[in-house]
# Entry
Amino acid sequence: MRFGQDLHRYQVPEWASSYIPYVSLKSMFNTAVREAMHKRTQPDFTETLLSLERGINTISDFHDDKYQFLLKREDGIRRKFGLPLERGEWLVGERLGCCQLEELLRAIIELREDFQKLQWYFRVNTEAINRVYSKLDRCSGLSGPLHQQRSKWLERKADRDAVCARDAEILRNLTAEIRRSLALPGSRPETLHRQSTQHGVIPDLLCCITEDQSSQLSAFLEKLSLDYGAHSPRFRELVYDMAGLSLTYGAKNSVNFFLFEAFQKYGVEIDNGILIHMICLLGRSGTLGGYNGVNITSPCGHKKRRDEVMASCFFHTVQRLGHQKKDVFLAKDAIGRNCLHYSALYRLQVICQSILEPARRDRSYALRLILSVDSQGYTPLHYAVIDNHLAITDMFLAALDLEGETSEKTTKDLVTLLDELLFIAIRYQFRDIVYLLGKRHSGCDTQSPEGETALYVAAQTGNEKVVDFLLSTGWVKYIDAAETARGWTPLFIACAQGHQAVTKLLLQAGARQDIVDDIGWTSKEHAALRGHLIVAEMLDSWSTLNLPGSPSSMHVKPVSGAQVHLPPDYSYVIINLGATRKGNQAKAVVFNPNSEGYICTGGSLALEVSVSEGNDTSRAVELPILNDMVNEPFTFPVSDPDKTWLAFMLYRAGSLHTGGRALLGSGVALLKSLSDCFGTDRESLIRERTIPILSKDTLILLGTVTFTFLIASPMAPLNISARGTPTFTTSSLQLVGHRGLGQNTANRSHLQLGENTMESFRSAAKQGATYVELTRDLVPVLYHDFSLSESGTDIPIHDLTVEQFLYVSKLQSGCPVQDVRKPHGVENTHTRSWSLTGEYGPGTQEIRDRLKHTVEFTNKGFKPNTRGDFIQDSFTTLEDVLTKLPESVGLNVEIKYPRIHEAAEAGVAPLAIEINTFVDKILEKILLHARNTRNIILSSFTPEVCILLAFKQRVYPVMFITNAGKPPVADLETRASSLQSAVRFAKRWSLSGVVFASETLISCPRLIGYVKQSGLVCGSYGLQNNIPENAKVQAAAGIDILMADRVGLISGALRAGGYL
# Structure
């Protein structure tokens, strides 16, 4: 669900302009659908398909270029270490010594990381492309050109997956071979004299190098020069390679002998290759320690010596180059890199200073060196910025600022480069680099391919300090510049992302709030839609009802996959991967760090989920999961949930030998055992479970899978006569009494009946309410709060019997204790409900004293339906209401299942009645006692309850209730976190509608049209609904259901306005 919103977080910043234009493609798709709806024709997706095909070709070309660059690097590694040029053949164990093996391993680890980077690039693009095709499929079906184009894409993807798996397996096997070779006795320096090199050099010469005995090298080389020929290419190549081997082993004396004696004597030149070798040895010295669990204990004793020697050797060598050093520094290797590229890449500041030393007097040299582009189009300045090295970046920029003549083309190229680097630094959120680039190059005109300015990208990341800097250094002129895909300004993206500080800065800088995007939405509406109500409240309220376009005219995207209709003949296991609560940071799949290097360097990974019913039903998801799957659950029919187990299988797509997917490991969860420990008909409110995934070969821990599950079991048949389905019409506004005549509050401005009492329900109906709301519990009773505080303790309702519940109600009756204890059936002669003032009834202070230490009284300062604060009446049960309330009064039965945050606030264990039993008991009472003429709505704040209500019965409409992001947010349920999330959840499970906290709809009333356009009934509740103007605003926007406490006041106002 959040893929598009989070896409910028998944992108490699320096490659951001080379991704599939997902946002633009979505915009084209939505435009085609809107135009078709307006013309009442079939959508024409020709433009979308053509743009998608161009995008696929573009990312394929980009991928191929980067892939060829990596292959060229791999080829260079093979040649350098004398390995077979045929991919897949390495044979390193008998060819190389320990220091050479370590150097090779460092190079391969670096190469593997870059292969993974490219693999991640393709993974993100694949997700975007598949999502676009899915949208097209849901609207037009896979036929004609769409089918052909998608088939071509799937073939291309399959080929790339196979190549990726092959490359990963080659590098993985090589890493394993090197580690094995390092552990062999033959790789020790003291046994190296038994080995030979690729040149067939005699062992004594190698021994001299490893032991750094330079005095003997001259004699050996003199002898070899006679055999090979002193000036033959083969002999010179041997001398050159021996110098490189001396560098690898850090043999200072040998290095000095080769570079400053042997090279001169035999006509071998010191070139960029020697200097690059030194730089790479210095830069890669720490590679082994931090790579995905690759832990190498080196048997080579030369590493420390080599690191100490290498820097001094570099400076001495550069000094000996004299006037030739400019040419050597400018020379490029096989992949187009010069010495400065590698120095910046490995963060070697002192080396960079040495290379740039001649540039102090020659700006043209500095430009040629710093702006030199390698085979993947990067300059040394690119690598300094990408690696967030402030000092090197500053050094390069200072060198470019030197006085001197510069051609117009060079100046233009430099400006373009600085623009590009600024975007990269902003996307990486390298604040100091942004400051550095921005001060030298303020107010750039460059935009991304989708029209995004630097200020827009900064607002998207949410980095308020970067946004503040840009606004103060020239970019304020772009504050209202809109990108081309959706017509969003920086204020739009900040609001949509929920960045409060950035939104405040933009508003203070004068960002216009009256701009609408390409579909007629305002930035305020985008914030409210996504649950960012604090951000929405920061923007001005102004009339949007008459603006062109609106949320109600927006095409409502189908939910991913089909809507869920569960036939009630089976039980079902409903699985969500990952957590469904924002407070739980657990990811769906987490790899063990010690195994991550093995797992993540393969081809595409997939997790397959199945059940033990033998129906061959399974669901698979590609890893890592890039989108929010909270409304994309896996649903499995099962015959016996108590005997069902879940299987999670981890696969790698593609294999070098088999060509098919390869099983890596698996895990199993027994559903019954996950709840057995809580007792009969009890379960934990915490539905997340985490199980290990073990390797199929070694049984080591590969990682964990976190999931939530819900078992939906059908109700037992009831012996009742067939009944017609009560109608539920929304042709006119329905006014609902909240908890009867109204929720009890601390407000003393009006008389309040005790909430959820029979008298409250009757009064609501008399004053114009069409429905009343009621709540709770197992023998279903009417009570709203989590715990019963009237007894003086915080006891969860589900831990009381109905007799205990009703007895607590009688404690406030004003009767002597002996009257309370009268036998069942003996009526109390004093039946008047106690008035609002406590002075008329005995024991008022005693009641308040009993309540004062309970959680709710501490938080609110009162307890609903208590004598002395409200007109108190007895508690009642659901059955009493169904049988005694006039049939003309409809009922909104809010099923109040306990929630985790309520248990946490009350300080009790997060346990409750098993949710199927809970729902079944309530439905039994409703189906047995409700009459055909009474209208009933079923509703709940708990998503699982709504799912079960929709599954277990088809008689009454089901409504989902949500705060929709209203602060303070206590319930961290993801499916209730915003209006958008709630609408998606309701559509996914075929619910009738959603009831929102009214703040969202009052702030942005046009969102009511968005909900109704989705095919859902829209309702609201909350204290704001007691204000007549707020009720009128929602009524004018088309609200279907309005829940209020002050029913008489709101009813009169709506009637006066012609809404009732």
Observations:
- The longest strand covers residues 701-712.
- The mean pLDDT is 81.
